Amino acid sequence: METVQKAEALYEKNDFKGVYEYLLQFKSSEDPELLWRLVRATRDRACMPDVSKEEKKTLIFEAFEYAKKALQFGEENFACHKWYGIMLSQTGDYIGTKKKLEDSPAMKQHFEKAIQLNPNDATSRHLIGMWCFSFADLAWYERKIATVVFGTPPSSTYEEALQNFEKAEELSPSFYSTNQYMLGLAYLRLGNKAKAKEWFQKVCEFQVVKEEDKENIQKAKDQLKSL
Question: Rounded distance, CA 74 to CA 195, Å?
Fold first, then answer.
């Protein structure tokens, strides 16, 4: 489809503002291929440095509304499940720990469905890794809230997280600076400082495309100083 091709061409050029402005005209569409790309574009626009904190919050919730619609029309589309799970997580950052924990099983289900529909998608693997890491890494107060919410809260391990980050990297080497940073962090939590150092150094060599890449490079440098 010509519209999708144009959106992808803008995305490939890293023109995130341009993609968002172009796709916004299709927000009433029922085409899941257009809708999930609108979710991605809205989320990317929200994370750009020229966007204020208040604007970012508005855009994140806007993206979630598009994600709901994308899923409604794209139940068998892996990207619709993936982006619904992502926006469930990102809106959770504003709603609070309790709500985010309540939504976490649904989040994981959507990431797993995305993998089932497309086993070769590196990002979905990374997202499962993030889910596993976050539950392995819960702070004591979060664990307490999780126990209140679930009785027995969902659990995971750093090993599980690591396996998913490694699988994502295997599927698409150097596709995402956050995946490489999380590989370093998972190895660090498991006490393997040599491997952690290796991955943090790789992050420092990552080609910057998004603001997120700059942040990951800085975090990797900080980690290397402390190793």
Answer: 40
